[in-house]
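seq/struct pair 1
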Amino acid sequence: MTIRVLVADDQAMVRSGLRLILEDQADIRVVAEAADGAEAVARARELRPDVCLVDIRMPRLDGLEVTRALAGPDVADPLRVVVVTTFDTDEYVYGALRSGAVGFLLKDAGPALLVEAVRAAHAGDALVSPSVTVRLLRTVRERAPARAPARPLSERELEVVREVARGRTNREIAARLFISLSTVKSHVSGIQTKLGLRNRVEVAAWAWEHHKVD
């Protein structure tokens, strides 16, 4: 199956570079480019790509607004958005997370991680660049005080929490713990419910705050 991707960035050279990297893969095709946020929303709604790569800073609508429009909680049929950023503004990236982005990647992360992020998003997993994770965790800690779970986590759930905190995708967790992908997804959902958290990065922050991972 070919993964259809939309690339949104206000710099033509960046768009061209991302296209070259992605279309070097047999299973990925860039179906559209957008030079600003408004164009990104319009093209994404028209073409319904499998994954949208969105810069955090763009004219007309920024990456936060684009993410909310395409993947926000009020969107009936959300798309999968991965933010590709220089990460010079923590607030923007945290806002994109809250708005429904499924991945974060630095522009200098390298071709392999870019391709992995697209494939992870398409598979329903999330990928956060390791260097971005540290910044995100610090922001989450500043905003959300440490909390105890409403119900205790099982030992298996704690194992999943540790793997999430290390930035591993659902497929990687399934392979490491010798369980099915659907079981991992069920555990992650249950963990978020018990902890009262809304996404994987907040789960990772909880793990670090409570010394559940080295």
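seq/struct pair 2
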Amino acid sequence: MCVCVCVCVCVCGYVKRQALYACNTCTPKGGEAAGVCLACSYKCHEGHDLFELYTKRNFRCDCGNRKFTELQCKLFPDKDEVNSLNKYSHNFFGIYCTCSRPYPDPDDQVEDEMIQCVVCEDWLHGRHLGCVVPDCVELQEMICESCMNKNPFLWTYAAHLAVPGAAVPVKEETGGDSNTDVPNKEEQVDDVIEPSCKRSREESSCRLKELQETGQKRVQSGAVFWPSAWRSKLCSCSTCQERLSEADLSFLFDESDTVLAYEKKGKNNEQKEQGHDPLMSALDNLNRVQQLEIIHGYNDMKTELKDFLQRFASEGKVVTPDDIRQFFEQQQSRKRRRVDAGRFYCT
């Protein structure tokens, strides 16, 4: 992991998704919940009792703000008193699941996987989800029963989009002939498409409304597992967008919000850094002599920077902006000495 990126994360605003920690030493249970970024966990909280929170969305590092009465952030001391858009849960005090137990739990002898809800981002034991955990769960997203019940319209989507086997779908009774499970084409058209001219275009194009009108339901209990790309199948009409916005669920329209997308992006960036040298694309318009001079200078600086950063890595320290400035000041000083040493004067 690049330490420079960690420093940028610490000073930036609310980050779309990042790894977070909670410091039990600085903000123990009973105090205000707070989260710190990876860089601050190394630089400001070394040797402290930390809770690893994995990743959270739309979060800004709290290190050194009002919640830390006796600690000032060593990376960026000038911070807002509070990050009002941050969301906190009992996870920030080392407690997880509906059973409110720590992880790892020394008193729990049952081997059980913990799965994160994509809405509240709490971690729950598989046995406390109220449903059967499907196969390939690492490729699926889960919404816990509590979050489903807080947003009842999600149950409609679940009846059509959820992973089969996690819950049993049922068909709503429509009356009439008990031997007829599905209405004929004419009845279905009359049901779904009202002839009234008052029906707005928005209503007729609302996928959620269309799904509701099919009458297909599922048992509204237990967590729900969702397959890959399920978010792209949510209705995005103006009414549904407003509904998700009011419920603070607009992120469900963003497929890059998923943890899988976050991990995939990290792997792609790592591979790109290993296989791509940005120097090559900058040399196309230079002559041979200029290309060689730049390549030699670039390689020298690259080697020196690698050695410089290696010292911090071996000591487990985070690189600060002051350290980077000091490195380049030393580079400039060495360059000036080389230029001065190469001058010749006639007498």
